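The instructor's notes for this session suggest beginning with a concrete chain rather than abstract definitions. Hand out the sequence below and ask the class to guess, before any prediction is shown, which regions might be ordered.
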Amino acid sequence: MCLAIPGQVIELVDEERRLAKVDVAGVRRNVNIALVDAGGVSVGDWVLIHVGFALSKVDEGEALATLELLQRMGEAYEQELADLQASTIE
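After discussion, reveal the predicted structure:
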């Protein structure tokens, strides 16, 4: 199962290539922010991430509620975190 999972932007890594480092439940990875960049992405923003791309910005309340719901899914959520941890975008 593939999920869109909320992550918080902790660093804008490469402005030209539109990469930002996000934190998803302690897992930190670079993601491409080009799809949501029109509205501007800043450190501290929350984004929904799928296969290495930020798909949309979400507010913090929605992000935290979604993370709580995903955690209750158990194995699917744990697998998504493991896949995120194994991925690399540079």
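Then share the key points. The chain has one domain: 5-86. The chain has a mean pLDDT of 85.
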